[in-house]
């Protein structure tokens, strides 16, 4: 299961790098340059990714061609949405080093640090 | 009769005076770990007082009285006589229902919170596996233009640093931030926040508890940040990192719904202000004070029982 997860990351990486529809065969051929891997394994991985909504697929003759549903940047942005959301219950899921500040607070924060540094100088 | 009244009086006093005292106390920011304990003790004490208020009101009901009689060995009639209120059986039944309702609500919200947290964390872990790059210093790098550092507690703890955050910090500053995050993970601060959040929502319908539990939850959130700040070997370096990350991110809308990070300024002042002393006697005072506050509602609720036992002893001696 863990290996499948890592393989998902590798396959997604390929689809993101290519940024065009790719068949299972193309992915297999590319992966086989660096490791031994079965066609059915890659098919299972792409099927899983499709089930999770991470890739879109379209019929091309008898096979499917796969593309990443979101770009890398879009996916990262979606991931950080949870982090940036100001929910009082977020602390149970993840802890953020420092929250978002208003422009006024940013000025105050800089001044507080500058005051402290000036005192030492 | 006396038990419910004294519990109510205690709950009102603790819920109004307690937060005022703790918000004004300077030692709370100086020893944030003890501060967390004090807030949790205060919140727990008032929650227990309100719960026991319901229970003591419900004691005259036959099933409750019979149970208590079996537990203590005191005859049912005596138990009822000591807890009887002029309010009558309707109020007793109402109190029992309210207790049961709140207990169910608490259990339901706790389960929902656990499931929600598990799901949200799994989403993060899945995304990080696809997008993140493992760094040898024990964190994951995520390519993104917003400077952010956060940690995912749990069975597979993770610290996430965006590429923009890495660019905004010197290696020394980043090391301080990582110390901060590691303290969050090792102290399981997420558990304190999760319990606080569940209690806050579960008792929101109880007027006395609504404000107290919201304040306690918010204060604990601030104090765990300060406690994690104390893990950094170079407080000044951490303060610089905090300012760099907070000011490097886009500013929040000035009057948005989110209050933003109210603690950031207090944290920077604290980190740059030099360490103030803390002593063992102070720890002992806060610890025993918290224990006392927690013991009060239990003693008040059990007072009629204690009285019964004492009367029993005197009767045997006579």
UniProtKB/TrEMBL annotation, chain A:
One GO BP annotation is: negative regulation of DNA-templated transcription
Coiled-coil segments on the chain, per record: none
InterPro entries listed in its UniProt record: BlaI_family (IPR005650), WH-like_DNA-bd_sf (IPR036388), WH_DNA-bd_sf (IPR036390)
The answer, when asked if Acetylation is one of the entry's keywords, is no
A GO molecular function term, named singly, is:
DNA binding
> Where on the tree of life does the source sit, at the highest rank?
Bacteria
The UniProt keywords, alphabetically, are:
DNA-binding, Transcription, Transcription regulation
Query: What family does the entry list?
Result: Belongs to the BlaI transcriptional regulatory family.
Name the UniProt record assigns to this protein: BlaI/MecI/CopY family transcriptional regulator
UniProtKB/TrEMBL annotation, chain B:
Listed Gene3D superfamilies: Metalloproteases ('zincins'), catalytic domain
Q: What is this protein called?
A: Peptidase M48, Ste24p
Species assigned in the record: Nocardioides simplex
Q: The organism's lineage? A: Bacteria, Bacillati, Actinomycetota, Actinomycetes, Propionibacteriales
């Amino acid at each position: 299961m863990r290996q499948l997860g890592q393989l998902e990351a590798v396959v997604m990486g390929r689809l993101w790098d290519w940024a065009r529809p790719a068949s299972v065969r193309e992915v297999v051929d590319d992966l086989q340059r660096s490791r031994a891997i079965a066609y059915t394994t890659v098919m299972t991985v792409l099927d899983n990714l499709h089930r999770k909504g991470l890739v879109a697929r379209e019929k091309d003759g008898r096979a499917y061609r796969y593309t990443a549903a979101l770009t890398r940047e879009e996916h990262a942005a979606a991931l950080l949405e949870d982090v940036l959301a100001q929910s009082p219950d977020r602390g149970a899921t993840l802890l953020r080093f420092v929250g978002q500040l208003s422009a006024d607070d940013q000025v105050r924060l800089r001044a507080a640090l500058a005051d402290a540094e000036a005192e030492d100088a | 009769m006396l038990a419910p009244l004294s519990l109510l009086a205690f709950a009102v006093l603790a819920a109004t005076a307690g937060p005022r005292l703790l918000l004004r106390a300077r030692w709370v920011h100086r020893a944030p770990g003890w501060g967390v304990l004090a807030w949790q003790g205060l919140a727990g004490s008032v929650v227990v007082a309100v719960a026991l208020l319901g229970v003591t009101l419900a004691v005259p009901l036959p099933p409750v009285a019979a149970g208590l009689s079996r537990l203590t060995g005191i005859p049912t009639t005596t138990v009822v006589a000591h807890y009887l209120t002029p309010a009558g059986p309707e109020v007793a039944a109402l109190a029992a229902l309210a207790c049961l309702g709140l207990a169910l609500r608490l259990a339901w919200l706790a389960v929902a919170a656990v499931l929600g947290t598990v799901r949200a964390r799994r989403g993060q872990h899945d995304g990080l596996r696809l997008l993140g790059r493992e760094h040898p210093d024990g964190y994951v790098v995520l390519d993104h233009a917003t400077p952010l550092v956060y940690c995912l507690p749990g069975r597979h703890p993770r610290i996430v640093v965006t590429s923009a955050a890495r660019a905004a910090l010197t290696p020394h500053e980043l090391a301080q931030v990582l110390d901060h995050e590691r303290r969050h993970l090792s102290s399981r601060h997420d558990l304190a926040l999760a319990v606080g959040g569940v209690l806050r929502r579960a008792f929101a319908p109880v007027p006395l508890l609504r404000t107290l539990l919201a304040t306690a939850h918010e204060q604990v959130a601030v104090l765990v940040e300060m406690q994690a700040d104390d893990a950094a070997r170079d407080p000044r370096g951490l303060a610089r990192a905090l300012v760099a990350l907070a000011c490097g991110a886009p500013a929040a809308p000035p009057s948005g719904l989110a209050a933003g990070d109210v603690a950031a300024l207090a944290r920077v002042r604290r980190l740059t202000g030099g360490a103030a002393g803390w002593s063992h006697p102070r720890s002992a005072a806060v610890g025993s004070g918290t224990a006392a506050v927690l013991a009060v509602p239990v003693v008040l609720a059990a007072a009629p029982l204690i009285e019964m036992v004492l009367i029993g002893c005197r009767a045997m001696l006579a």
